[in-house]
Amino acid sequence: MNGGPARAGWAAAVTLPALHLAPAVTALPAVRRRFFPGLHGVGPPDRVALTFDDGPDPESTPGFLEVLAAHRVRATFFLLGVMLQRSPELGRDIVSAGHEVAVHGWRHDNLLLRGPAATVRDLARARALITAVTGRKPRFLRPPYGLLTGATLVAARRLGLEPVLWSCWGRDWTATATADTVYDTVQAGLSGGGTILLHDSSCTAASGAWRAGLAALPRLLAECRSRGWTVGPLGGHRNVAR
């Protein structure tokens, strides 16, 4: 007689964790490229979105802003709340230079290890701070490590954020990264309509690793121009008519 409630409880115990973990499969580029092109960062074929994670960082972000200004290129900066809290003026500098700001989380925490309430609270806190400091309401969310969870998707919906990962990256967080390795790694996955991920801070990576990405950036921008692609913020992928 009691088998029904027991089975229901067992099913819930299995189903809830599965719902939480299932979206993490999109961390696999092949999966999101085939089934979730928007999440993969795919846009119009004549442009490339340029994005940066983990800032703002007073040690490194100004250098990236200088290179972007010199090349007249705008980008999207996925900000960590804790970093923006330490350097609010730098966050305002990013927006003043014409760049887009987006949510990367409060800290660089693996959201697979956080519960629904903590996930919603942290992302809401980061979104609120970015809006208050920069005067811009973020449109996009990129979770740390590119790991989506069921709770992250729920939080994004509540906060009006669109999750977007990337189609190519530079592996510019490693201690062995150089300008050449960053360039070559990005190039291996680069195509029109893609989204590039680089890092304007090494706060969660090997100390000073950002220098490799910064050194590679002018060459990457030149390569995109040579292929006839416009480089710009992620919002342009969504705003351009298909």
Order of helices and strands: HHHEHEHHEHEHEEHEHEH
The percent range for strand residues is: 5-15%
Helix vs. strand class: alpha/beta
pLDDT under 50 segments (min length 5)? 6-16
Largest sheet: 6 strands, parallel
SSE blueprint and pairings:
Layout: H1 3-21, H2 29-35, H3 37-40, E1 47-55, H4 61-70, E2 76-80, H5 81-86, H6 88-96, E3 100-105, H7 116-134, E4 140-141, H8 150-159, E5 162-163, E6 168-169, H9 179-189, E7 195-199, H10 210-226, E8 230-232, H11 235-239
Parallel strand pairs: 1-2, 1-7, 1-8, 2-3, 4-5, 6-7
Helix pairs in contact: 7-8, 9-10
Report on the architecture of this protein:
Helix 4 (61-70) links the parallel strand 1 and strand 2 (76-80). The protein has helices spanning 3-21, 29-35, 37-40, 61-70, 81-86, 88-96, 116-134, 150-159, 179-189, 210-226, 235-239; strands at 47-55, 76-80, 100-105, 140-141, 162-163, 168-169, 195-199, 230-232. The protein is globular. The strands form two sheets. Strands 1, 2, 3, 6, 7 and 8 form a six-stranded parallel beta sheet that branches. The chain has a two-stranded parallel ribbon with strand order 4-5. The chain contains eleven helices and eight strands. Mean pLDDT is 90; it is low at 6-16. The termini are far apart. Helix 7 runs parallel beside helix 8 and helix 9 packs across helix 10. 48% of the residues lie in helices and 14% in strands. It is of the alpha/beta class and 242 residues long.
